[in-house]
Design goal:
This protein is α/β, with parallel strands linked by helices. 46% of the residues lie in helices and 15% in strands. α1 crosses α8. The radius of gyration is 16 Å and the shape is globular.
Length: 179
């Protein structure tokens, strides 16, 4: 019998709430004794993908590597929670191609002005100072209809409401587990 494992990929602008919600999901699944690991885009950028820049082909390769790691982990009966910006269609298309039916997208949505005001990692401030030109040069491409299936708006809902919405979707995909 094949074990059901999924890759829950949270994407959106920096400051939208991806990391907060991804960590909540990971912890929620672990508390329910569901095997899960978390991969963060920033962590991957500073380790396995540290040789990559921010040109379009490097961004694509960054997401390819993360998706392949997620695929390998899911193949070992681990669920995977990933959070990356995945700001462009080619990146999301490649992730979808690699992960297929194991992939569950969550679009973590907050308007750019709110993300800039939150700026938890200081990247918008650095971009405005000219230190991260690539953040300005490559804007976030809004999700297409098939990527919006699990739309989580962090403006109209608080963190707990967003988390419970995500957990509810995760439950529906992990029906072999008693969650």
């Amino acid at each position: 019998m094949e074990t059901l494992t999924k890759v829950f990929w949270l994407f959106g602008r920096s400051g939208a709430g991806k990391t907060t919600l991804a960590l909540r999901l990971r912890d929620g699944l672990l508390n329910r004794k569901i095997p899960v690991v978390y991969r963060d885009g920033d962590e991957m950028r500073s380790t396995l993908c540290s040789d990559l820049g921010f040109r379009p082909e490097a961004r694509l390769e960054n997401h390819r590597r993360i998706a392949e790691i997620a695929r390998l982990l899911a193949g070992q009966d681990l669920n995977v929670v990933v959070s990356t910006m995945a700001p462009e269609y080619p990146q999301r298309d490649l992730v979808t191609q690699i992960l297929g039916d194991k992939l569950v997208w969550f679009y973590i949505d907050a308007p750019l002005d709110v993300c800039m005001a939150r700026d938890p990692k200081g990247i918008y401030k650095r971009a405005q100072a000219g230190q991260l030109q690539q953040l300005i040069d490559y804007p976030f491409e809004a999700p297409r209809s098939h990527e919006r299936g699990n739309h989580v708006n962090t403006i109209t809902h608080n963190v707990d409401e967003c988390y419970h919405s995500i957990l509810s979707v995760a439950k529906s995909h992990l029906n072999d587990f008693a969650i």
